[in-house]
């Protein structure tokens, strides 16, 4: 229920509504409008490559080495974003904050980015789409990307004064997610309505389980 409802204070209760798909309560880090179905990729690590691995110290002894390192990072990051583009990936959903160089190349290659998703949101998206997060720096960096979800739409959504991301996914099961937008004059009213609705859904869930037996 937590991933399938959003509360908006300062609006009348009558403004509440149900929207198809998911509403992620954060803004795009990069937004590149695209029509039709979109291939979406989930990542749980930075796409900006590290100069050294865990437990390895990287020493820069001159400004020239430092600048060369930055150029290598930029080229490698651009190669990753080109690879996403060549695989028709138009949406990147990340559980971590991506470096500014990633955002710049994402805009250049037409990839929208949503970052800092919670572990619960990532797990829920994985469940309804049937895909797993992508590891960008494995041995198959140039191979085909097969673990992508299909998004039927992806667009900005304004809830009160907060900018959000509204995404519709093609589900791999019978469940088609919809998001409940709860509006109320103050946060306390919204919390009461959310608790009441969650309780009602729990009762219905138990009722259908009983009938199913």
TrEMBL record:
SUPFAM superfamilies: GroEL apical domain-like. It comes from the Eukaryota. InterPro entries: BBS10, GroEL-like_apical_dom_sf, TCP-1-like_intermed_sf. Transmembrane segments: none annotated. One of its GO terms (biological process) is chaperone-mediated protein complex assembly. PANTHER family: BARDET-BIEDL SYNDROME 10 PROTEIN. This is BBS10 protein. The lineage of its organism: Eukaryota, Metazoa, Chordata, Craniata, Vertebrata. The gene is Bbs10.
